[in-house]
Amino acid sequence: MGRWAPWSLLLGQLAQVLSQRHVRVPTAEVAPGVSMPVMSIGTGGLESRAATEIVSNWLSLGGEGIDTAKVYRDQDVVAKAIKDAGVDRKKLFITSKVPGCMNVRANVEDDLQQLGTDYIDLLLIHFPQPFFMCRDAWAVLEDFHSKGILRAIGVSNFKKTDLESLLKNATVVPAVNQIQHNVFHHDDETIAFARAHNITIEAYSPLGRSNSSEVTGSPVVRAVADNHNVTSFQVALRWILQHGHLLTFQSTSTAHQSVDADVFDFELTSEEMERLDQLQGPALAQQALVV
Predict the structure, then answer these.
(1) Cα 4 to chain center, whole Å?
(2) Region of poorest pLDDT, from 4-13, 15-24, 147-156, 248-257
(3) How far is CA 232 from CA 15, 68, 287, in A?
(4) Cβ contact 97:69 at 8 Å
(5) Hey, how many other C-beta atoms are within 10 angstroms of the C-beta on 130?
(6) What pLDDT, on a 0 to 100 scale, did the predictor assign at position 49?
(7) 276, 243 in Cβ contact below 8 A?
(8) Which three-class secondary structure state does DSSP give residue 153?
(9) Could you give the CA distance from residue 174 to residue 88 in angstroms, rounded to a whole number?
(10) What is the rounded end-to-end Cα distance, in angstroms, of the chain?
């Protein structure tokens, strides 16, 4: 993950990281009796070697939330990194996913085997395809949930219409909908529907889908960051959390992981939140013209 920030600020934060080397991430209840760290480290889209480094560094900092999936093809690597770290499984919160709505029972069993665990804290349907099978897929997850094998169940990449259809037959309301969400891209319709039905939103790609240049290049984000003496990345992550959402982010660097997770000692003002809310769409295009 690239880093663009004033050297004095970044070096000061890195020095603090090196002296403390610990993250403090609060939790939020996503289902009855199930509390989840509001920030988890993500392992998707990278080679297995990177997944080892990502998880090992996160655990060395005291991080507890880990996000993976069958399609990432790294769950066995994640499991080994956890074992090598010697961290008690009960202290961790592992999120995994099954690839869509086909072969769900077999895919859940594969997730359990690859992760080397007899339960998963949060299991998501990765995407609503093929959608006509999602009702039956959800019934399978509810069965695993009733047995305690899946502590909480949810979905990912579901739009409002997908959620509406699923809820018509669901006995258990999805605990989480993990979606792409950041200051430059947010599906407000889906978010409003989720909030109305007590479905927690968890953001992936919280700094942008392909890179974080939008965050570092935004004069609005930079101005807010300067006001709080933090990085632009911290502002972008804080904006998500301050809206009451959760997030999963990714970095291989211990120092960057710690800085990104250091977002609980400052609070954005209501005016700053509103300015950041408006960066999506036309406002973002206009900003690009100014820059």
Answers:
(1) 22
(2) 4-13
(3) 18, 26, 16
(4) yes
(5) 10
(6) 72
(7) no
(8) strand
(9) 27
(10) 23
The secondary structure of 191-205 as a DSSP string is HHHHHHTTPEEEEES
- Check if the beta carbon of residue 93 is closer than 8 Å to that of residue 65: yes
- Burial tier of 196 (Cβ tally within 10 Å: 0-12, 13-18, 19+): exposed
Q: Are 242 and 38 in contact (CB under 8 A)?
A: no
Q: Which two tokens mark 57?
A: 């560094």
Give pTM, 2 decimals: 0.89
Please give the Cα distance from 281 to 89 (Å, whole number).
Answer: 42
Cα(159)–Cα(247) distance, rounded to whole angstroms?
18
64: CB partners within 8 A, 6+ apart: 25, 37, 91, 92, 93
* Amino acid letter for position 125: I
Does residue 204 carry a catalytic annotation?
no
Burial of 97 (0-12, 13-18, 19+ CB in 10 A): buried
For residue 253, is pLDDT > 90?
yes
Alpha-carbon distance 30 to 149, whole Å? 16
Query: Which stretches of the chain are assigned E, i.e. beta strand?
Result: 27-31, 34-37, 39-42, 65-67, 93-98, 120-125, 150-156, 176-180, 200-204, 246-249
Note the helical H segments in the chain: 7-20, 48-60, 75-85, 104-115, 134-146, 160-167, 188-196, 213-217, 219-228, 232-242, 254-260, 270-277, 282-290
Question: How many Å apart are CA 99 and CA 115, to the nearest integer?
Answer: 16
Q: Which residue carries 């959800």 as its tokens? A: 138
DSSP tally for the chain: helices H, then strands E: 13, 10
Q: For 84-90, what is the mean pLDDT? A: 96
Confidence of residue 208 (pLDDT cuts 50, 70, 90): confident
16: amino acid identity, one letter: Q
Q: Which of 23, 51, 72, 184 is catalytic?
A: 72
Query: Phi/psi at 2 (nearest 5 deg)?
Result: -70, 155
